[in-house]
Design goal:
Layout: E1 6-10, H1 20-34, E2 38-44, E3 53-56, E4 59-64, H2 71-91, E5 94-98, H3 103-113, E6 117-121, H4 123-130, H5 136-144, E7 148-151, H6 154-163, E8 169-171, E9 195-199, H7 209-222, E10 226-231, H8 237-247, E11 253-257, H9 264-268, E12 273-276, H10 285-292, E13 297-300, H11 305-308, E14 314-317, H12 322-333, H13 338-352, H14 355-371
Parallel strand pairs: 1-2, 1-5, 2-4, 5-6, 6-7, 7-8, 9-10, 9-12, 10-11, 12-13, 13-14
Antiparallel strand pairs: 3-4
């Protein structure tokens, strides 16, 4: 009989915020509840109108103020969330810090309650700061602190292990709800002759959408009927829209802004190919979601993307290379077996990166720590 465990998660950002970290933590929390465990999440009131306390998909959520989306804001959020973490840690069997910003409040609460805890290192924020001399001693302490450390990609695991000077960091790729993310009826009508490409990227420089826009003129000369749909928002949007006008491709690219997560399967299913032109990446949840919806992928050969994409399910190109991106898209759209590639992409996600696999591995780790035994990596982790 499975023991019902009480799991406390700290994460600065959480749904309805949109992003890879947010999707990962939200799906993990929901998946843990679905298999019979209790989950509480301490996060931030990062958007106006969010409730301080609520229960969503069986997960109890407490939101505390976030003064800014930067290092001082993260520190102040950590301090402000600490009283709740300390109280709820006495309820919990195990604690989990999601991303480096959550490590200090989780560590302090776990120590006060005498509970084991885990940390997962995510996103390019970690990789960027790991390159900076002032941040390296801080990150070294954070990596060595938890009872067990995870990373969202092999690259992050290797960087974290180097920082931690011998600390073992387990690479555990993000997961996808393959029941929700699957090929469904298209949400967008496709006119005859249109070749639709979807770019599900937040509009930040690191996500490389500029290079996709710059690749469009060459792509449109090679393939007729191109229509690009960019789903996401961010500080780069106005500049990217201006760039599209400057290049004369504004009629071929639509910026839809942020869309609710539940709309994404229909939007993804409206396209033939998904594009991830990232300059820096952990393991892209958005790419896994697109693949789960049977879309072949063109992605930059950077970060964790080569761990999930190869020539059987898409094309990898050098980051920041507009010509290679246009050529890769031309090559992929010219193939007669796009449908078969999409099916292989979904099969790969179901086999190796489902949310069920992610939940199962986390429970193995939690049980080992609660029992006071060594955490052993296993094939369940899906490390690639």
């Amino acid at each position: 009989m499975t023991v019902r465990r009480k799991i406390l998660i700290h994460c600065v950002y959480y749904p309805p915020e949109v992003g890879g970290l947010e999707s990962h933590v939200g799906e993990l929390a929901r998946g843990l509840v679905e298999v019979g465990h209790e989950v509480r999440v301490v996060t931030s009131r990062s958007e106006k109108g969010l409730a301080r306390d609520e229960v969503v998909t069986g997960v109890r959520i407490r939101r505390t103020p976030l003064p800014g989306r930067n290092a001082p804001g993260w520190v102040l959020h950590a301090v402000g969330s600490l009283p709740t973490m300390v109280r709820w840690a006495r309820w919990a069997d195990v604690l989990h810090a999601q991303a480096f910003q959550s490590v200090p409040p989780t560590a302090l609460a776990a120590r006060a309650a005498g509970r084991p805890w885990v940390a997962t290192f995510h996103t390019s924020h970690f990789l960027l700061r790991a390159r900076r001399a002032l941040w390296r001693p801080v990150l070294r302490r954070l990596v060595r602190w938890p009872d067990h450390a995870l990373a969202a990609s092999t690259e992050i695991a290797e960087v974290a292990s180097t920082l931690g000077r011998g600390a073992r960091v387990e690479a555990l790729t993000n997961g996808v709800d393959t029941n929700r993310f699957r090929a469904v009826d298209p949400a967008m009508v496709t006119e005859p002759g249109v070749r639709r490409i979807v770019v599900p990227r937040r509009l930040y420089e690191k996500n490389g959408v500029e290079h996709f826009v710059r690749a469009l003129p060459e792509l449109m000369r090679a393939v007729s009927g191109i229509e690009a749909v960019v789903i996401g928002d961010g500080p780069e949007r106005a500049r990217l829209e201006a760039l599209a006008r400057e290049l004369g491709v504004e009629r071929a690219v639509r910026f839809l802004g942020v869309r609710p997560h539940e709309e994404m399967p229909g939007l993804l299913s409206s396209a033939e190919v998904a594009v991830f032109p990232s300059l820096m990446e952990a393991t892209s949840v958005a790419a896994l979601e697109a693949m789960a919806c049977e879309l072949p992928v063109v992605a930059s050969r950077v970060g964790g993307l080569p761990e999930i994409v190869d020539d059987s399910v898409g094309v990898l190109v050098p980051p920041g290379d507009c010509g290679a991106l246009a050529e890769g898209l031309t090559q992929l759209l010219g193939r007669s077996d796009l449908g078969q590639m999409g099916k292989r992409a979904r099969e790969r996600v179901v086999e190796s990166w489902s949310n069920e696999r992610l939940v199962r591995r986390h429970l193995e780790i939690y049980e080992a720590l609660i029992s006071g035994i060594s955490v052993q990596e296993s094939s369940v982790a899906g490390r690639r």
